[in-house]
Amino acid sequence: MKTTIFIIRHGKTVWNLEKKMQGSLNSPLTEEGVFQANCLAKRMSNHNIDAIYSSSSPRAIETAEHVFPNRDFAVSDAIAEINMGAWEGKTFSWIDETYPEQWHNFFKDPIHYQPIDGETYLEVNDRVSPFVKNVLENHQGQTIALVSHRITSKLIIQELMNHDFELLGDQEDILSTSLTKIVIEDGIPTLEFRSNIDHYDI
After folding, report:
1. Which fold has domain 2-201?
2. Could you give the C-alpha distances from 164 to 47, 49, 63, 72, in angstroms and in order?
3. Where is the secretion signal located (predicted)?
4. Each residue of 50-79: pLDDT tens digit?
5. Tens of pLDDT along 174-202?
6. Which of 46, 60, 86, 199 might form a disulfide with 55, Cβ 3.0–4.6 angstroms?
7. Burial class (CB in 10 A: 0-12, 13-18, 19+), 121
8. What percent of the chain is modeled with pLDDT above 90?
9. Which residues are annotated as a binding site for substrate?
């Protein structure tokens, strides 16, 4: 039995453009973000998707609506972005200057990242892990799409691939409206591609 999971990061937002942290706060898609999502829609139209789940964040829902027009999808807080607390709405440069050690840890050493009034990676993983297990149990042998975020997508991939949590900081980044594909056959996961944006050329 083969189960296929597509993981999609939301399209580029205003705060992505302004290099601000979003987390649990929201910023709308830019024109480029909508274009990216529409390009991905053409690519995904070639696949028979049995179930679609989106983060409850408006930017993820907006992306899902563009990528999967005229399709119903479930919305879940479990795959919302990590809550970044005091960093939300702040620029990358301000955070780097104000919290240099935690800024480094956030991307390179997640297990030692300590948020200011936000979530740790482990806390996010505690909501992502049971969600992923339930999806796999409820959709065995099907093709599923998950529309999520940069950090949460990394944790979803880690969960599906059974990777050690300590290796999370070594993961390749997840680009805006990128597509990651994981196939699980006979209990063995295969990462077919990660953070792919070939559809931008469609």
Report:
1. Rossmann fold (3.40.50)
2. 31, 29, 30, 34
3. none
4. 999 999 999 999 999 999 998 999 999 999
5. 999 999 999 999 999 999 999 999 998 75
6. 60
7. buried
8. 91
9. 9-16, 59
pLDDT, one tens digit per residue, over 7-47 is 999 999 999 999 999 999 999 999 999 999 999 999 999 99
Backbone torsions φ then ψ of 174, nearest 5 degrees: -110, 115
Instruction: Tally the residues of the chain.
Output: 202
Binding-site positions read 9-16, 59
**pTM assigned to the model:** 0.95
With a cut of 90, say whether residue 135 has pLDDT above it. Answer: yes
Place of tokens 């970044």: 84
Ramachandran category for residue 179: left, alpha or beta (phi over 0 → left; psi -120 to 50 → alpha): beta
Give all strands (DSSP E) within the chain, no chain letters: 2-9, 51-55, 74-76, 143-148, 179-185, 188-196
